[in-house]
Each structure stands twice: as structure tokens, then as C-alpha cells.
């Protein structure tokens, strides 16, 4: 219950949005029109939801419209069976976000993708480059990661689903994902670059180039920023 005359410090239009797959919860924060700047769409990673970006809200929302959805299967959004949504693949999730932009009547946004959200952001930019003005990738899973032993076991037909469902628990899976995506350690005696080692930069850029390179370079060119590592 809100007191008479109550107004939030940051305009808040958060709500459930009905899309083809079901309902998607959207945090729609900040001014609806921000001096001609397109909204900033923030895409979260695995095992979290839109609340993960809470620390950015007071920094950005006073002057910028923020769109922070809970991806399907996460947070307060609906959880359709994987068989009905291409196994929650990044390309399917990108199509969901494009449908969200259509529902909001938005022609263009800036996109920030973190972790698994980075892979979704790349798929979104590849599917509709004219809808993405700037693309920001933070610790993005947009290139192949070496799998530790437990990851390889989870891919074995028949045995894999049992291992994943019965032997992994949330802390163990989080530990595995942290190991799988761990950046190269810095060399002793040399400062660590702010955005991670150059080798990680090359891998990230290579991952971007693998997604329809001609169209990506035409559409985004100098408007792609990639950051990797715990120092970011």
C-alpha cells in the first residue's frame, strides 16, 4: 500500500508483459523519454535474474530509461517447457527480446549482455542489427569454453542427464561455471589489464566475427565494447 502523494525516486513502470511464450517480467525504470537516447536493455546471465543489475539502477536510471527483463525461466517470468522454446537457446531468447521490443514499440536500443546474456545479446544483434545502436558485452559467453571433466560427463548420452540432475546442486553448478569461464591468470610481475588479458579480447572478438561477420561489421563497427574478468 502506498501513501497518498507517494512518488518513487526513479520512475518505475515494471510489469508483466504477455508474449507468445507466456508472461515476461520487465523492470522498466527511468524517464520514458531520455533526451533522444534509446533505452538501455540489460540482459542477465544464468542462475540469476534482472535483480542482478540493481547496483546500476541508481547510477543510470535518473537520466536513462532502463529495460531489465527476467528472461524466460528466471525470476518472475513464466517457465515454458524447454521442448516448446528450443531448449532456451540464445537465439530463441533473442527472438523473445525482439518480440518484447515490438510490444513496447521500440525501434532501437543499446544492449548490455552479461555472461550468458552476452551470447543472447550477440544473437539479438545478429538477427536484427538495425535494432541495436550499441552493443556492450561484459564477461560474455560468446566463444567456446574448455569443459572440465564434470562438464564432459554431463554431455554423455544417457548418463549426462542423470549426472546433471542428481549429482549437481546449485553451489556445485555455480562452482563449475566459475571454473569453466575463468579467465587466464595474470603473469607474475605484470599488471593485469583492466578489461582482461589480450588473449580474452581476441577470443571475444573472434566470437563476434563468427556471427555473420560482414553484417556485424556493417551494423556495429566501432560501437561494440567487450569487457572480461573480475576487475571489471
What does this structure look like?
With 232 residues, the chain is α/β, with parallel strands linked by helices. It has two domains: 15-145 and 194-227, Rossmann fold, CATH 3.40.50.1820; 147-180, no CATH class. Helices cover 33% and strands 16% of the residues. Helix 2 crosses helix 3 (116-127). 28% of the residues are buried.
Helix content: 25-40%
Overall outline:
globular
Instruction: Classify the fold: give the CATH topology of the largest domain.
Output: Rossmann fold
Largest sheet: 7 strands, mixed
Strand content: 15-25%
Give the beta-strand count.
7
Number of helices: 8
Span of the ends, CA to CA: 39 Å
CATH architecture of the largest domain: 3-Layer(aba) Sandwich
CATH C-level label of the largest domain: Alpha Beta
Poorly predicted spans: 186-197
Helix-strand category: alpha/beta
As a whole number of angstroms, the C-alpha radius of gyration is: 19 Å
Please state the average pLDDT score: 77
Could you state the CATH homologous superfamily of the largest domain?
A: Alpha/Beta hydrolase fold, catalytic domain
Tally of individual domains = 2
Order of helices and strands: EEEHEHEHEHHHHHE
In short:
The protein folds into two domains: 15-145 and 194-227, Alpha/Beta hydrolase fold, catalytic domain (Rossmann fold); 147-180, no CATH class. It contains eight helices and seven strands; from the N terminus they run βββαβαβαβαααααβ.
Record the SSE blueprint.
Blueprint: E1 15-19, E2 22-29, E3 40-43, H1 57-60, E4 66-69, H2 90-104, E5 109-114, H3 116-127, E6 132-138, H4 149-154, H5 159-167, H6 170-180, H7 198-209, H8 213-219, E7 224-227
Parallel strand pairs: 3-4, 3-5, 5-6, 6-7
Antiparallel strand pairs: 1-2, 2-4
Helix pairs in contact: 2-3
Amino acid at each position: 500500500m502506498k501513501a497518498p502523494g507517494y512518488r518513487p525516486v526513479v520512475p518505475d513502470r515494471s510489469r508483466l508483459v504477455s508474449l507468445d511464450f507466456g508472461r515476461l517480467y520487465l523492470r522498466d525504470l527511468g524517464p520514458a523519454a531520455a533526451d533522444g537516447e534509446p533505452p538501455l536493455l540489460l540482459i542477465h546471465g544464468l542462475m540469476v535474474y534482472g535483480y542482478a543489475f540493481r547496483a546500476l539502477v541508481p547510477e543510470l536510471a535518473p537520466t536513462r530509461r532502463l529495460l531489465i527483463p527476467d528472461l524466460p525461466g528466471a525470476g518472475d517470468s513464466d517457465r515454458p517447457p524447454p521442448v516448446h522454446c528450443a531448449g532456451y537457446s540464445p537465439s530463441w531468447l533473442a527472438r523473445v527480446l525482439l518480440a518484447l521490443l515490438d510490444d513496447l514499440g521500440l525501434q532501437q536500443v543499446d544492449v548490455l549482455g552479461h555472461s550468458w546474456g552476452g551470447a543472447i545479446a550477440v544473437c539479438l544483434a545478429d538477427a536484427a542489427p538495425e535494432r541495436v545502436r550499441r552493443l556492450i558485452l561484459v564477461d560474455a559467453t560468446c566463444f567456446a569454453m574448455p569443459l572440465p571433466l564434470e562438464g564432459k560427463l554431463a554431455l554423455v548420452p544417457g548418463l549426462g542427464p542423470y549426472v546433471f540432475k542428481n549429482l549437481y546442486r546449485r553451489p556445485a553448478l555455480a562452482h563449475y561455471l566459475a571454473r569453466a569461464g575463468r579467465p587466464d591468470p595474470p603473469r607474475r610481475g605484470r599488471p593485469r589489464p583492466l578489461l582482461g588479458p589480450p588473449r580474452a579480447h581476441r577470443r571475444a572478438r573472434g566470437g563476434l566475427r563468427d556471427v555473420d561477420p560482414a553484417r556485424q561489421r556493417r551494423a556495429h563497427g566501432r560501437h561494440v565494447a567487450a569487457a572480461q574478468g573480475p576487475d571489471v
